[in-house]
């Protein structure tokens, strides 16, 4: 009997425990549901003056984004030329910006806003996702690494990496098949960034070794980070250094590969512009098989061509911010502190109110006479404001070098059987690759 009584009370205790646990879980779920409901009401109330595309109560606009983000952004920019809500599910919403004045109002605000990147994409807290004083410190310490004097020494290294890629392409020509660009270009940009930034080394052991013995030689990006000090004499910790190494790899590898791949695709797609660029490059390089720092500023038409490619095919389609203070737009509408915004670079660049005939490929949009009266926030391939891309000149140099050396050796033509299907996987890529035919020039 005592054994049965003991078993009964033991069972009752376990049952009571599970009952309490169930009540606690239900209470937490109820509180979370109330919190989500209140947040949804707050966001809906904030957005009452902003029109947007119809949204599913559960998915939001996720289905449209998943099917084809670039087409959706372009269509929304035409229908909602200033801005519109963009819902990811039922409880996460951004005000998606498609217009210059709205972009200026949010992205010229002195770096106070928080970059709303998904932390899971970038493993460590580098410049992309830092905010506040920590972001200001890192930005100040990293900026010297992108000074012209430093970038000048990278030109030879970038050219070496491009030539390795072109040598591979020359061996593929006898196969008489189109070449998938992104795979080769991605390897080239990885090789280039490892040479320029880390001399092929980028882990904790290397950081310690380089701290102990910095040679009096060409400084790479990691050397500059190791030597950097703020006004109080404080440098970056090893953890901070590793975070910035990861960030530079993440932000400077695939993004540049995307830009260069689409530039080469446009060369193939528009042979008349390809020929104009080649004539400019041939006149510039003459009989040289390499390119130098001073050459990069002497290729105006090629630079206009690159910018038009970046307008139509920006590597990053969206850039997010969380407002650290309220903002009021020129038309009187406003957003409160804490609200999320996204700059639709793709939508802005294809907005008919900003760019006449936006789908037409025309490098002369970037001629001096056409750019002089253009809104400074009309062309934003590297984002805008204080949180713009710190490595944009590094990327532009690599794009110019890749274009120049490629045109001096090959003629590019499209593969009509494999037209690219743009898809956004962190950066703008093609679902089926970017294929072109190559012909070796005599």
From TrEMBL:
<dbReference type="GO" id="GO:0016705">
    <property type="term" value="F:oxidoreductase activity, acting on paired donors, with incorporation or reduction of molecular oxygen"/>
</dbReference>
<feature type="binding site" description="axial binding residue">
    <location>
        <position position="389"/>
    </location>
    <ligand>
        <name>heme</name>
    </ligand>
</feature>
<dbReference type="InterPro" id="IPR050196">
    <property type="entry name" value="Cytochrome_P450_Monoox"/>
</dbReference>
<protein>
    <submittedName>
        <fullName>Cytochrome P450 family 4 subfamily B member 37</fullName>
    </submittedName>
</protein>
<comment type="similarity">
    <text>Belongs to the cytochrome P450 family.</text>
</comment>
<dbReference type="GO" id="GO:0020037">
    <property type="term" value="F:heme binding"/>
</dbReference>
<keyword id="KW-0408">Iron</keyword>
<keyword id="KW-0349">Heme</keyword>
<dbReference type="GO" id="GO:0004497">
    <property type="term" value="F:monooxygenase activity"/>
</dbReference>
<dbReference type="GO" id="GO:0005506">
    <property type="term" value="F:iron ion binding"/>
</dbReference>
<dbReference type="InterPro" id="IPR002401">
    <property type="entry name" value="Cyt_P450_E_grp-I"/>
</dbReference>
<dbReference type="InterPro" id="IPR036396">
    <property type="entry name" value="Cyt_P450_sf"/>
</dbReference>
<dbReference type="InterPro" id="IPR001128">
    <property type="entry name" value="Cyt_P450"/>
</dbReference>
<keyword id="KW-0479">Metal-binding</keyword>
<dbReference type="Pfam" id="PF00067">
    <property type="entry name" value="p450"/>
</dbReference>
């Amino acid at each position: 009997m005592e054994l049965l009584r003991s078993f009964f009370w033991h069972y009752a205790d376990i049952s009571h425990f599970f009952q309490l646990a169930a009540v606690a879980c239900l209470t937490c779920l109820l509180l979370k549901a109330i919190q989500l409901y209140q947040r949804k009401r707050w966001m809906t109330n904030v957005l009452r003056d902003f029109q947007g595309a119809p949204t599913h109560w559960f998915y939001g606009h996720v289905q449209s984004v998943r099917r084809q983000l670039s087409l959706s952004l372009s269509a929304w920019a035409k229908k909602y030329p200033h801005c519109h809500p963009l819902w990811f599910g039922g409880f996460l919403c951004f005000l998606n910006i498609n217009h210059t004045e709205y972009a200026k109002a949010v992205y010229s605000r002195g770096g106070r806003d928080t970059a709303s990147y998904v932390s899971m994409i970038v493993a460590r807290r580098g410049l992309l996702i830092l905010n506040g004083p920590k972001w200001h410190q890192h930005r100040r310490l990293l900026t010297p690494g992108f000074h012209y004097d430093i970038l000048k020494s990278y030109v030879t290294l970038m050219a070496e990496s491009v030539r390795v890629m072109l040598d591979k392409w020359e061996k593929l020509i006898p196969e008489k098949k189109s070449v998938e660009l992104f795979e080769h270009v991605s390897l080239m940009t990885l090789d280039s960034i490892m040479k320029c930034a880390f001399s092929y080394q980028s882990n904790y052991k290397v950081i310690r070794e380089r701290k102990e013995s910095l040679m009096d030689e060409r400084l790479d990006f990691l050397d500059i980070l190791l030597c950097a000090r703020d006004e109080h004499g404080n440098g970056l910790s090893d953890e901070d250094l590793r975070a910035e190494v990861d960030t530079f790899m993440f932000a400077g590898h695939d993004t540049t590969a995307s830009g260069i791949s689409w530039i080469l695709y446009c060369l193939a797609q528009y042979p008349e512009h390809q020929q104009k660029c080649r004539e400019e490059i041939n006149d510039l390089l003459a009989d040289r098989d390499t390119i130098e720092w001073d050459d990069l500023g002497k290729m105006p038409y090629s630079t206009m061509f690159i910018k038009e490619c970046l307008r139509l095919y920006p590597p990053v389609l969206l850039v997010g911010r969380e407002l650290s203070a309220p903002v009021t737009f020129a038309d009187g509408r406003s957003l409160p502190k804490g609200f999320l915004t996204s700059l639709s670079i793709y939508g802005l660049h294809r907005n008919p109110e900003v760019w006449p005939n936006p789908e037409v490929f025309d490098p002369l949009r970037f001629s001096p006479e056409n750019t002089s009266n253009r809104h400074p926030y009309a062309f934003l391939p590297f984002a805008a404001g204080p949180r713009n891309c710190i490595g944009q000149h590094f990327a532009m140099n690599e794009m110019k070098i890749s274009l120049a050396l490629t045109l001096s050796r090959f003629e590019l033509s499209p593969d009509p059987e494999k037209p690219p299907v743009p898809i956004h996987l962190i950066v703008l890529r093609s679902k089926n690759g970017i294929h072109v035919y190559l012909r070796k020039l005599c």
